[in-house]
């Protein structure tokens, strides 16, 4: 705010109150005020805009408003609907973000259904390296610079580490939210007005690039940097919250090393993301490709056709290999049993959320069937993946709204997925589960 003494303020008020003008000048100046208010209130919330319209449509209050605007201009203030808040353009925010190559923040993910992800502090060193300090005490290091990216999970309290090598997955750039925010266009970014947080007045922006993502960004007008970011995945029922930002943080480069500290017990997981050739295979191929117990389906009276295939993982944009057994029943239903190393490599994580789902059946053999929190989507991905690999077996045009997913936990703890395009009777479901037999070596 400009430095103006009390005497000068009184003089300016007196000058305004004594000012006389012709009707033509008054009309011209009021039009200028209207134009200015339209520009300045474009970022205000709907309720605030209605108040300004009432003020400017009232013959008495509009003169007072004109006087306030004149005083504001004389004093060098920026009138934005909040005290001492400079109006920030989205282009200014992007320009400021581009000055930084690294940042850290707190990240929270809230899901409507399914497993919850713990809160973590994320340190982004660059677009290919980051460190995640999770609230459970574990530390994750991600390095995607090479052809075969590496992730390291450290559990200091247990002196254990999990090293995952992603063969053929890289090099990759981290698709983190700040990079997405940078790509917002000024014209398609909506102003949300202001809010107060921790003593600061923040300015809000909203950007909805498509039906899947809805961003809200709250910016500090002084630094022109994000203070809070909220990303709603509208189709997935989850929201990511980022806050407590610190740009250009100081952290020793060794904090991003994928070397395992001495004395740790190490588990190594290999995930192959090289291109997968979709093709029909034998049950023995499943056995040789899995690092855990494998299963096949014995012939049942109601099975008209059975096909075993390897395909790219439908949940990973066809990266990674899964083994699927396709079944055509006598009532025209298409059923898929899927198996992959992911079920074994991340068994603890899978079981953590599976056991929270509804148990719908326990077969005499001890196998259990559970619901899937996003069963319709899971089924759609797998049916579509199978249809693309073998269009003669299933036509995606016949995708049914009745489709569902069940997670199978065998008596030995092996996890499989079951997808069906249409409803199945409990009798057929139990027969199918009981027909699963371990694939033995020839």
Give a structural overview.
The protein is α+β, with helices and mostly antiparallel strands. It has three domains: 70 residues, no CATH class; 154 residues, outer membrane lipoprotein receptor (LolB), chain A (Clam), CATH 2.50.20; 164 residues, no CATH class. It is 26% helix and 33% strand. The protein is built from eleven helices and 22 strands. It has a twelve-stranded mixed β-sheet. An eight-stranded antiparallel β-sheet has the order 13-15-16-17-21-20-19-18. A hairpin with a 5-residue loop joins strand 20 and strand 21. It is globular. The termini are far apart.
Radius of gyration: 31 Å
Main beta-sheet strand count, sense and barrel state: 12 strands, mixed
What is the mean pLDDT? 83
- Span between N and C termini? 85 Å
How would you describe this structure in keywords?
about 450 residues, alpha+beta, outer membrane lipoprotein receptor (LolB), chain A, 8-stranded antiparallel beta sheet, 11 helices
Short summary:
The chain is an alpha+beta fold and 442 residues long. 26% of the residues lie in helices and 33% in strands.
Element layout with pairings:
Layout: H1 6-17, H2 23-40, H3 46-57, H4 61-75, H5 90-97, E1 103-111, E2 117-124, E3 129-134, E4 139-143, E5 150-155, E6 160-167, H6 177-182, E7 190-197, E8 200-207, E9 213-220, E10 225-233, E11 238-247, E12 265-272, E13 279-280, H7 283-289, E14 295-297, E15 303-312, E16 321-329, E17 334-339, H8 342-345, H9 347-354, E18 359-362, E19 368-371, H10 375-389, E20 404-409, E21 415-420, H11 426-434, E22 436-438
Parallel strand pairs: 6-12
Antiparallel strand pairs: 1-2, 1-11, 2-3, 3-4, 4-5, 5-6, 7-8, 8-9, 9-10, 10-11, 13-15, 14-22, 15-16, 16-17, 17-21, 18-19, 19-20, 20-21
């Amino acid at each position: 705010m400009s430095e103006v003494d009390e005497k000068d303020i009184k003089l300016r008020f007196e000058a305004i109150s004594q000012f006389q003008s012709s009707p033509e000048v008054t009309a011209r100046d009021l039009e200028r005020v209207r134009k200015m208010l339209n520009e300045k209130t474009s970022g205000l919330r709907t309720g605030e805009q209605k108040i300004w319209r009432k003020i400017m449509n009232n013959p008495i209050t509009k003169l007072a408003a004109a006087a306030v605007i004149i005083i504001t201009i004389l004093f060098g203030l920026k009138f934005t609907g909040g005290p001492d808040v400079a109006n920030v353009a989205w282009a200014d925010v992007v320009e400021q973000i581009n000055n930084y190559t690294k940042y850290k923040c707190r990240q929270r993910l809230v899901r409507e259904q399914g497993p919850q992800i713990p809160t973590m502090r994320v340190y982004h060193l660059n677009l290919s390296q980051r460190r995640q300090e999770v609230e459970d005490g574990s530390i994750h290091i991600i390095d995607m610079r090479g052809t075969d990216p590496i992730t390291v999970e450290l559990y200091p309290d247990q002196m254990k580490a999990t090293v995952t090598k992603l063969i053929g997955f890289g090099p990759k750039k981290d698709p983190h939210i700040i990079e997405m925010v940078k790509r917002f266009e000024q014209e398609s970014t909506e102003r949300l007005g202001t809010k107060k947080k921790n003593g600061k007045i923040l300015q809000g922006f909203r950007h909805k690039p498509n039906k899947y993502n809805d961003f809200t960004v709250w910016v500090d007008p002084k630094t022109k940097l994000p203070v809070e970011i909220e990303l709603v995945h509208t189709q997935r029922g989850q929201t990511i919250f980022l806050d407590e930002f610190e740009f250009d943080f100081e952290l020793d480069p060794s904090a991003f090393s994928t070397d395992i500290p001495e004395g740790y017990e190490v588990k190594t997981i290999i995930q192959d993301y090289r291109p997968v050739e979709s093709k029909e295979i034998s049950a023995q191929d499943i056995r040789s490709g899995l690092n855990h117990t494998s299963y096949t389906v014995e012939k049942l009276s109601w099975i008209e056709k059975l096909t075993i295939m390897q395909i790219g993982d439908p949940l990973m944009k066809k990266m990674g290999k899964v083994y699927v057994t396709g079944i055509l029943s006598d009532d025209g239903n298409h059923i898929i049993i899927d198996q992959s190393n992911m079920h074994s490599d991340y068994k603890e994580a899978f079981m953590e959320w599976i056991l929270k789902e509804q148990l719908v059946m326990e077969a005499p053999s001890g196998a259990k069937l559970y619901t899937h929190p996003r069963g319709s989507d899971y089924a759609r991905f797998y049916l579509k993946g199978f249809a693309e690999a073998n269009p003669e077996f299933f036509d995606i045009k016949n995708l049914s709204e009745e489709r569902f997913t069940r997670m199978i936990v065998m008596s030995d703890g092996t996890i499989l997925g079951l997808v069906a395009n249409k409803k199945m009777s409990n009798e057929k479901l139990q027969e199918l589960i009981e027909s699963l037999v371990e694939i033995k070596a020839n």
